[in-house]
Amino acid sequence: MAEATAYVTDLARKRGLDAGVCAEALLSLLLMVQVVENSVLGSAKEEALARIRDKDDWPALALALQLEGAIWTEDQDFFGIGIANPAPGVGGPTQSPTHARSNPGLRCSTDTLPAEWNPDRTP
C-alpha cells in the first residue's frame, strides 16, 4: 500500500490524469483492502521467490498464487511469469484474465471505471 501511495501522483502525471482524482480513488480502494501479513504467505513464498525478478515483490506474487488470481500491474517484473495482466496501455506480454491460474471471481474490467481513470477506454 505504501508503494502505491508513493507512486500515485507520478503515475497520474504520466497518464495525463488528475493526480487529486487518482489519489482520492486510491484512498477509496484502500478502505476496501485487507492487509495480509507475510507470515500467512509462507506456503507460496518459495515459488514466488523462484518466479519473480524483483525479490521485494514476492508477497504480491505469493498472494496471487494462493488465491489463484492475476495481478493487474504496470510493473515489468511481473510480466512473463504467468500471473500478470498488464494494465491498459502497458506493453509487455498480454495474458487473458481467464488464464489457467486465474480465479473467475477475481476478474477485473476497466469498462466500469470512469473515463478519466481509464485513458485507453474509447467512449
Quick summary:
Helix content is 37%, strand content 5%. The chain is mainly alpha-helical and 123 residues long.
Shape category? globular
On the 0-100 scale, what is the average pLDDT? Answer: 75
Helix content: 25-40%
Helix/strand order: HHHHEE
In total, the number of strands is 2
User: Strand count, sense and closure of the main sheet?
Assistant: 2 strands, parallel
The number of distinct structural domains comes to 2
Structural class: mainly alpha
Helix run count: 4
- Low-pLDDT stretches are 92-114
- What fraction of the residues are assigned to beta strands by DSSP? under 5%
* Radius of gyration computed on alpha carbons: 15 Å
> Distance between the terminal alpha carbons, to the nearest Å?
31 Å
Strand arrangement, largest sheet? 1-2
Can you put this structure into words, describing what you see?
- Helix 3 (42-51) crosses helix 4 (58-67).
- The relative contact order is 0.12.
- This protein folds into 2 domains: 1-35, no CATH class; 37-123, no CATH class.
- Mean pLDDT is 75; it is low at 92-114.
- It contains 4 helices and 2 strands; from the N terminus they run ααααββ.
- By secondary structure, it is mainly α.
- The termini are far apart.
